Structure formats: structure tokens, C-alpha cells
Amino acid sequence: MSCDISRGRLEPCKDSVGGLKAVYFINKGDLGAATYDTTNTDAIDSFAGTPTAYKFDIKGGSTYTENITSSRENGTTTFEQVLELQLTKLTKEDHKTVKLLAYGSPHILIEDNNGNVFVAGLEHGLDVSGGTIVSGAAMGDMSGYTLTFSGMEKAPANFVKDGDLSAAGVSVTVGS
Fold it and tell me: What is the SS3 string spanning 34-103?
């Protein structure tokens, strides 16, 4: 792998927005091998098999960040992937799901408000590294769950080509 860059970057148009729209959880090991776009190896065309993704709609309060750590002395570069998720409303069903998410290390597909879908935890999955179950104090306070998922990968989260999960072979299950 060459470390030389091969392109520049123009000032982009101001047509991008922040925020996350949805996250999709896939049980660790169910994702299957990724097939990459032949012209853009940072985009995934498809996954082997038919992994099932469990969709969670989200609004505001949730963020995705990748922290890059590169060490010249060690000759290493890593990408820490951090998803801070806010799920409103406490329910018996969600309580069980949150517990299972904390026990596991799922792969997480993250859809932003620009239609991009990123694959976090592609190799190692992400672990719940913190969170809360909160009732709120006043009637206008949030009642729900906050979860922080963290993982370490050798490369940044790949894009799913065209943000199209069905074309990538992912079966999506939507909650009730």
C-alpha cells in the first residue's frame, strides 16, 4: 500500500447538513465478508450472505465521531469509532434490547442526514462503553436511554455504496 496521496480537494458546496437519521445493528459475526467497489475501495458494494439489520430511528442528540491516532514512533494508525446514541422513552421491550446491546459487540451501520451510511465496527464490532437509563426530573426532561458505543479499527468506517442497504444485501427489520 502506497502512502502517497493521489488527489486534491476543492472547496465543496454548502449543501451538507449534520445529524444522524438512523442506526442499524447487526449481531457480531452476521455481517459476512465485504465486497468493495472496484474503483473506490472505501465504498462497500455488498456483504456475503444476507445479514439482518435492526433499524432504530433517531432524532437529534446522537452523534458519530472517529478519532484518528497515528504514531510515527510505533508506526501505527488506528481509528477509534464512537457512537453516542440517545433513545427516548423507557419501555420493557427497549430495556431488554439495551441490555443485549451492552452484552454484545454489534456491527453498526450509521445513516446520516445526507444519505450516507457508514459501517462502524466492520472487523471488531463496537462495545457499549457507557450510558444511562434515566427517568428525568421534570416533566419536560428526557426519559430514555443514552448509550456510548466505542470500537477500534485499522481503517475509517467505510461507506455503503450509494447508501443502499438492500443493494448491499442487508435485510432491514424495523421495530414496532
Answer: EEECCCCCCEEEEECCCCEEEEEECCCCCEEEEEEEEECCCCEEEEEEEEEEEEECCCHHHHHHHHHHHH
